[in-house]
TrEMBL record:
This is Phosphate-specific transport system accessory protein PhoU. InterPro entries: PhoU, PhoU-like_sf, PhoU_dom. Its main location: cytoplasm. Keywords: Cytoplasm, Phosphate transport, Transport. It is found in: Cytoplasm. Belongs to the PhoU family. Residues 22-105, 123-209 form the PhoU domain.
Length: 227
C-alpha cells in the first residue's frame, strides 16, 4: 500500500468518524430541545444556543475534508458518491441543529403562554414521530440500513399531514380571534410546528442521500415514479 493510499484511506475514515460524531450529537441535541419545549428550562435553552457553534464547526470540518479529498485524490464511483454524500449529509445535520436552536429560543415565549396552547396535542404527536424518525435515521446512517431509511422517508407524510392540519387550525382560530395576546400565541405555535416539519424534511433528505450513496439511485424517483 502506497503512502498516498494510506493518506486517502485515513481521510475517508476521518470523514466517516466525524459523520458518526455529528449524528450522535444531533440526536442528543434534539432530545434536549424537546425537553426545553416542555420545561422552558433556561439553563437548557442557553446550553442549546451555545452548542450550535460546535455543530457549525463539525459541518466545516466535514466539508473541508471532503473537498480536500476530491481535489487531492479524485475518487471515482462509490468512493466519489461517499464523499459527495458526506457533504450533503453534513449540511442537513447542521440545518437540523439550526432548527433545534430556533425551537429552543421560541420555547422561552411558549412557556409564558403554554396554558393557552391550542395545538399542544399536534405538537406532541409531531415531536414523538420526529424523535423516532431521528433515532431510526441515526441507525440507518450508522449501519447503512436502506430498509430503515425507506421507513423513515415514508413517515414524512405523517408529519406533513399533522403540520398542515395544525397550520389550518391556527389560521381558523386567528380568523375568529379578537384578543391580540392570543394572536401572538397562535403565531408562536405556527413557528414551532413549522420548525419541526423542517426537521422531518431534513431527515428525509438524509435518507435520500444515504440511499444514493449506497446504490447510485434516487430514492424519491423509486418511491414516487413519474408517469
Amino acid at each position: 500500500m502506497t503512502e498516498r493510499t494510506l493518506h486517502y484511506e485515513k481521510e475517508m475514515l476521518f470523514l466517516n468518524s466525524k459523520l458518526m460524531e455529528f449524528v450522535d450529537g444531533v440526536e442528543d441535541f434534539f432530545e434536549k430541545t424537546l425537553y426545553a419545549v416542555k420545561s422552558g428550562d433556561e439553563r437548557i435553552i442557553a446550553e442549546i444556543e451555545q452548542m450550535d457553534d460546535y455543530f457549525d464547526e463539525l459541518d466545516v470540518q466535514i466539508q473541508l475534508t471532503a473537498f480536500d479529498v476530491i481535489a487531492k485524490y479524485q475518487p471515482l464511483a462509490e468512493d466519489l458518491r461517499f464523499v459527495v454524500a458526506m457533504i450533503g449529509l453534513s449540511i442537513d445535520l447542521e440545518r437540523i441543529a439550526d432548527e433545534c436552536v430556533n425551537i429552543a429560543r421560541l420555547s422561552r415565549q411558549v412557556q409564558r403562554s403554554l396554558e393557552s396552547f391550542s395545538s399542544w396535542e399536534t405538537l406532541n404527536q409531531m415531536m414523538r414521530i420526529i424523535s423516532v424518525m431521528l433515532q431510526q435515521t441515526v441507525d440507518a446512517v450508522k449501519h447503512k440500513d436502506l430498509d430503515l431509511a425507506i421507513k423513515v422517508w415514508k413517515r414524512d407524510d405523517e408529519v406533513d399531514k399533522l403540520h398542515n392540519e395544525g397550520h389550518d387550525n391556527l389560521i381558523d382560530l386567528a380568523c375568529h380571534e379578537t384578543n391580540p395576546r392570543m394572536m401572538r400565541v397562535y403565531l408562536e405555535e405556527a413557528f414551532l410546528i413549522r420548525h419541526l416539519e423542517r426537521i422531518a424534511d431534513h431527515l428525509t433528505n438524509i435518507c435520500e442521500k444515504l440511499y444514493f450513496m449506497q446504490t447510485g439511485e434516487q430514492l424519491k424517483k423509486i418511491m414516487r415514479p413519474q408517469h
